[in-house]
Amino acid sequence: MASMLSLRGLFGGRQSRPSSLPATITATARNLFSTSSTSMARVPPKAAPGAKPMRKNRTAPKSENFYRIKTLRQNMFSPAPPPLRMARLRYLRHWTIHRAWQLFRRQQHDAIAKERQRMHAGMYNACEELRQTVGPEGRAEGYLYRVAMEKKGVWGTDAVPIEYARFQTDYPGKEPWNHDWKR
């Protein structure tokens, strides 16, 4: 009998008891360590008819970023989608549009690079002109270039704060830089 009780404890007590053991022995063995009778034992209250069974509230309070984190986890750890499978004509259309977009982007990039190169060349030519010009009051050649390249008032305790490097406004302008401005 003792071996059956220990085995019953191992397997969760869900096994049916052997028919050779009487019901009174198993009930006595079950209440072996109890100090009160079975009639005094606490019985949970019965639920009202039609009511849902009560559950223990084990859910932790959700943080304010719960749904954001949930969405991120779903997207980060989800498997990659399968590659596109297209018919021959659809693939040809896709490839043509893709190549046209790449060509357009390259033309934009080249135009921007050309404009930057033009602006850089203009600054270089202006600096060369300053370097070759004789300064005022008999100053040597290159004086104007050196004065233009000085960084007075940029660093140190006497420097102009970076906030005052441009005119202060409440909101940034619609156009950050007017490239069409001429003197």
TrEMBL record:
Biological source species: Epichloe festucae (strain Fl1)
Spans annotated as Disordered: 36-60
GO molecular function: structural constituent of ribosome
Gene Ontology CC: one annotated term: mitochondrion
Protein's recorded name: Ring finger domain protein
PANTHER family assigned to the protein according to its UniProt record, in alphabetical order: 54S RIBOSOMAL PROTEIN L28, MITOCHONDRIAL, LARGE RIBOSOMAL SUBUNIT PROTEIN ML40
Biological process, per Gene Ontology: mitochondrial translation
Gene3D superfamilies recorded: 6.10.250.3440
Signal peptide: none
